[in-house]
Amino acid sequence: MKKIMTRMLLLAAILTALTGCSGGTGEKKEEDTSKGGSVVVGITQDLDSLDPHKAVAAGTKEVLYNIFEGLVKPDKDGNLVPAVAESYEVAPDGMTYAFVLRQGVVFHNGKTVTAEDVVYSLKRSAGLLETSDPEVQVVAALSVISTIESSENEDGKEIVTIKLKEPNTELTGYLTCSIIPCDYKEQATKPVGTGPFVFTSYEPMESIVITRNEKYYGDKAHLESVTFSISESSDAAFVELLAGNIDIFPYLTEDQAAQLKGQYTIEIGDMSLVQGLFLNNAAAPFDNLLVRQAMCYAVDRQAILDMLSGGHGSIIGSGMYASFGAYYDASLAQKYPYDTEKAKALLAEAGYKDGFTFTIQVPSNYTYHVSTAQVIADQLRKVGITAKIQQIEWAAWLSDVYSAHNFEATIIGLDSQLAPSDILKYYIAGSPKNFINYAEDETFNATYQEALKTVDAKKKKELYKKLQANLADNAASVFLQSPALLVAVNPKLGGYTFYPVYVQDMASVYYK
What we know:
CATH architecture of the largest domain: Roll
Number of domains: 3
CATH topology of the largest domain: Dipeptide-binding Protein, domain 3
Shape: globular
Number of strands: 20
Radius of gyration: 23 Å
Number of helices: 13
Helix content: 25-40%
């Protein structure tokens, strides 16, 4: 780590000497109005699809958030506010949702949004179309839908009514799924939505450019255009930062942030992710509960926060983070305090007195996860465990780890819709999303289904806390933190906003 730090400091000095830059993006831009200008946002992952219903990666969704909207969308406080819909009601029994569509909403191709478009979009996301596209990422939670119908109210406004097969009061959290034109066939290359920015161009592994939607129904974006510049890694993006070629970069480590002070404003928020050392529960030795518990005791979570983000971030003890409010069980963060002697005793009891060797596969484009792996490997040596770190490309992680479940351990951050069931879906036995093969306690699935169906708010909170306790008791994985999000922002800019979901909202950013 010290060698890396030294190299980066040397690189910073060289670039500063060569470019003479003393702050922000130097003389690259002269924009000084709150209505106008352009910015460059650094990202470290190419988009896996321009079609919002086919996108898998959180890094793709954070960009497409600016182009597409659902019936509702999240605000910075975690509320789901009307978007394409102007209002909605949920029946007390949790069986019917009725959305009154906002009038005058126009797609980026000029077509007015109709109930037909909304019904099509919802059915596509739910896998309910007569002819389905195998590449569409069907939202499993929407399988509860029985029918989706449209009508008009007495004021002539279109209404979309969703009826369910069984009670579910959380469905609104999934209805952020993008509304797209029902008769448009070019989403994969020229995406069209209703959001505050319009797609302009995309060059794989280079950039995606979006421009302000002048026909947006709500408050228009301040910026005229935004370029998301794609770098092959965080280190490559950091070089661009030091050269002054990027205005906003949201994935800094504490060391990197320290080097940028005085050149960029460092904004600190939360990634709204469950970061974990995720263990394949079906692969030895992690099919042994005692080994998984030993791993939990052997990892010092606070030290990870201190080393990588200056103490910022929130330690977690299960598969949910604090943004879920009343559903979140904060007490579980203390279930496995750092205790190397306890870890050694559990390893000995499990038959691994002399430890063992395993491999952590980490997506190479996420420097924060790679750095976390390096810290954890150092900590595990103290209890006799050798962790080999294998950095792999994102596409390989998706295919080998997430889809094929072919791994021993990995470090990743799991994102979520604003529904507690969504962040816990990764542990349902039999689900393809259960990439860690969690099946330690057969009560998990039954409790999960009960939590989904109950309309009693108090009971729902109790059940979701019971699910979190289930994961913690069985040490499903080493749950680490909801990481701090350290963002470098050109000091000429204002309005950068953090959300309780993983997005980069450029509509609020402006030149001071």
